[in-house]
Amino acid sequence: AAGVIQSPRHLIKEKRETATLKCYPIPRHDTVYWYQQGPGQDPQFLISFYEKMQSDKGSIPDRFSAQQFSDYHSELNMSSLELGDSALYFCASSLGGGSSYEQYFGPGTRLTVT
Amino acid sequence: AQTVTQSQPEMSVQEAETVTLSCTYDTSESDYYLFWYKQPPSRQMILVIRQEAYKQQNATENRFSVNFQKAAKSFSLKISDSQLGDAAMYFCAYRSASNNNDMRFGAGTRLTVKP
After folding, report:
1. Shortest Cα–Cα distance, A10 to chain B (Å)
2. Chain B residues with CB inside 8 Å of A33's CB?
3. DSSP 3-state assignment of B101?
4. What is the pLDDT of residue B101?
5. I need a surface site. Which of A30, B26, B65, B89 has the fewest CB within 10 A?
6. For residues A52 and B47, what is the distance between their CA atoms, to the nearest angstrom?
7. How does pLDDT run across A3-60, given as a tens digit for each residue?
8. Hey, is the C-beta of A92 within 8 angstroms of any chain B C-beta?
9. CA separation for the pair B42, A64 (Å, rounded)
């Protein structure tokens, strides 16, 4: 079965640069979530989209923005990167925005900021 | 705000034995969902099991089962007949029934399986 696809899988950027992470949800899934997992930490919710509209916002820095496109894929844009942004970024998708729907996680994008 | 606590940073189990991972949570809500996720060295987040708070029956998935104590706000994971492939980080997670978008994770428990 198709899973959530994230690209790139690994990304190395320098401080103050910009990064764009992409997420392709499972086919027919209309809801996307972004999580950030720092080294040795649990995942933290950043932001989510349902039917191309932002549905909720967590601990996402103002330097980050995201959107969901007409084909339901999502992009997380990160500007003015800081060393502390180095983390594993997960995307998850679900069929429907209700809480009863499972979130399926992608493999993650490992961002290293030097 | 809801919080999830995993008090065991590390656990170890002998292959074929049984191990129980603890999780407690704090919430004022009556309707919610609880999950256990497995994160192997590949760092992929894999759903192990889920429990709806309104269900009294404990969820079971093959060798994985939970002990859900709603009044005590406890949600432990039991792994029976442990296998080497069970070695991973295990995260307990909470999600409100009224807000799908905010999944709260515990700090994780690293499980080692000894051959």
Report:
1. 12
2. 101, 103
3. coil
4. 64
5. B26
6. 25
7. 899 999 999 999 999 999 999 999 989 999 999 999 888 899 899 998 999 888 888 9
8. yes
9. 26
Beta bridge partners of B114: B14
Sequence-separated (6 or more) residues with CB below 8 Å from residue A74? A22, A23, A25, A32, A34, A49, A66, A67, A68, A91
Which residue reads 């704090």 in tokens? B26
Question: CA of B96: which chain A residue's CA is closest?
Answer: A99
Q: What is the DSSP string of chain A?
A: ----EEE-SEEEE-TT--EEEEEEPPTT--EEEEEEE-TTS--EEEEEEETTEEEEE-S--TTEEEEE-TTS-EEEEE-S--GGG-EEEEEEEESSSSTTSPPEE---EEEEE-
CA–CA separation, A24 vs B86, rounded Å? 28
Chain B CB contacts of A41 under 8 Å are 107
| pLDDT per position as a tens digit, B49-67 | 999 999 889 999 999 999 9
Question: By the CB < 8 Å criterion, does A73 face chain B?
Answer: no
**Location of structure tokens 């040795």:** A40
Asked if A59 is an interface residue toward chain B (Cβ–Cβ < 8 A), one would say no
Interface with chain B: mutation pick from A42, A54, A101, highest number of B CBs within 10 Å: A42
